[in-house]
Amino acid sequence: MFKHNLLIIYRNFKRFKSTFFINLLGLSTGMACALLIYLWITDELSMDKFHDKDEQLYQVYLHHEENGEIRSAPPVPALIADALEQEVPEVLMAVEDTDTNEFGEGFSLSTGADKMKAKGKFSGKEYFELFSFDFLYGNSTSALPDKNSIVLTASLAKSLFGTTDVIGKTLEWQILKFKGQVQVSGVIADLPQHTSEVFDFVLPFSIYIEDLMGEERNHWGNYIALTYVELAEGTNVDQLNEKIASFVKDKAEWSNVTPFFKQYSSNYLYGSFENGKQSGGRITYVKLFALIAVFVLAIACINFMNLSTARASRRFKEIGVKKTLGANRKQLIFQHLGESITMTILSLILAYLLVLLLLPEFNNITGKQLSLSLRPELLIAISGITLFTGFLAGSYPALYLSGFKPVSILKGKLATSSGEIWTRKGLVVFQFVLSIILLVSVWVVYKQIEFVQNKNLGYDRQHIIKIPIEGAVVEKMGPFLAELKKSPNVINASATTHSIVESGASTTGVRWEGKDPDSNILFEQARAYYGLIETLGIEMKEGRSFSEKYSSENDKIIFNEAAIKVMGLKDPVGKIVNMWGNDKEIIGVVKDFHFSSLHNKVEPMLFHFDESFMLNILIKIKPDNPKEAIQDIELVYKDFNPGFVLDYQFLDQNYQAQYVAEQRVSILSRYFAGIAIIISCLGLFGLAAFTAERRQKEIGIRKILGAGSFHIMALLSGDFTKMVLIAICIALPLSFFAVKSWLAGFAYSIEPQWWYFAGAGAIALLIAWMTISVQTIKSIHVNPADTLKDE
């Protein structure tokens, strides 16, 4: 019987070629989409899971209580690591760390005269005991024994020394005005693909605290570190978080923060908080694409179901004869499910080839390095997708076809039931509901990204070049900026510690007259040099900016509107505030500008003058000739910084980098929405062809009786038009709730317009009409004599 069923399957595929190819193309495309999305989701879920202590590895976060709201963030006081390790028995190990992005690639390393840029950070002694990175030379327990040690990745070691066997060799590091000589104490393999943290080397955390920050800045109100801990096995984290809730407040009565532990490997996917509660993160996109994969597969399966049941009348006699000869319903179900699974296996082969073809471009869009190597888990996933698709696509046709009575079939008394018609129509409606939801979603995502790119941020990010401050420029920053301004292609130049496009350092160390002693306001703080406000084009609401016209600006401060509002100050210019124990005069208030992602609302911010600690130089250039401007900057840079290579970035590129995830989602969702529409239209095309074929004699008679082409076209397309219109009515409210939910993740977003939804519906209807019209026009032009000659 198995051989017989295979023969029947082959003959049916050969007999109904158009149906076979429509199903093959639809299923293979749907499965290819599902496989690509599966690879992407698997990669996302694997991030940071490779560490041996993953189950016990947690990061310390802080809840900041501000104006009745809670803001959650990972920077903590550097003192907290030792305190947790000594006072909380459940904490087996606590390690200090710095954010890899704090200094970016501002480090310079050298083994001689030449300098090399690299991305580094400062970490505690036990960092490599807590995190699992493979050591090629040295070991995790003695990787950072003292301030004179450094751990390199294999690639950096080769770049510096030409080999990885470099234990004991010396090199010099430099960041800003700080530098030192260290010995290589360890070399690790290049970081694995599934790590969210990327660095080239690690220096001891003690350098950061003692040399860069200074011990006077190491207190409970300064959030300058990241802290990771290993918790004892079996620890109830919720109970432990309750236990340590007042940990910082016990050390500093004025504190407004509550520490809590969050599993490190969850940070990548669950990185967002709203008023102290977990509110998603990248997991939103994982769920979104999982849903898209199900949608696309479902649409492809619906095509198979519809076309199989529509063609059922061609197989009535086969089923009747088989039942008459003794075949039971179970055998017939097995036969038709076998046909469905065979079709799915053929589709899988084509889908696999499609994935191999598309994977390089998919990797390019997603920024990943996905591969289709046949690992056991991938084989299991592929088998699962194939069987699921086969059973889903074939279940309804198998149950439907096997349920007919042989007597009715052989007498030719079978009539199409209303239930069958409504089921088929319902499936078409469901297809287009899913497709329209995807269309609306794509449109809204695109418009939000466009809004983000074009929104007035309150400062001018265009034509601003950012370069790190290093080498001789650290000591000669003033003369360097003055020389830059002499270039006819440079409009202005200044310096700051802040990246401008994302949050940096913050402080609660600001006091003022009338301040509520029970409240601690967290201020974003940026050190600023002369002309920074003008270089960025930030608008002053009142007062003035820092200027060389005045003798000293070290005791001056500037706030934004949000800060003044929170502080409750009226006529703030001229008033005195105390910051870190020093009195400062408010000389100006800037209008609110977005110094962080549009996911966040504008928070209180301050600028204070401090030329002793700057990270970035910002240069406003004329837009006419950027290449010539960069050449001028390079010439000045080489004069001041021999041995250093100019490393520059454009500020607008830094800004766009914050929305890489959204941009990738926008691109991918466009592709998948397009595929969903194409698959839906394939099914519609097949159904339209079948309907036209079944009604060919009716069309011939109507033409003989004088019916025109428009009347016949309306007749054939009317039912399909109704189905798409019903789908539009169902899909539009559902898509509205879906996009509103996504936009809620932005503090500043577009307001979905009615024409987004009307446009998506109109596009779906137009595509459906175009699909149907191909078969309709073909039917209209058939000669009635050819269709009625056997009557």
From TrEMBL:
Q: What Pfam families does this protein's entry cite?
A: FtsX, MacB_PCD
Q: Key word Lyase present in the record?
A: no
What residues does the ABC3 transporter permease C-terminal domain cover? 291-404, 672-784
Which residues, if any, are the signal sequence? none
Q: Is Membrane there in the keyword field?
A: yes
Membrane topology qualifier: Multi-pass membrane protein
Per its record, how is this protein called by name?
Answer: ABC transporter permease
> Which species does the entry assign this protein to?
Marivirga aurantiaca
Query: What lineage is on file?
Result: Bacteria, Pseudomonadati, Bacteroidota, Cytophagia, Cytophagales
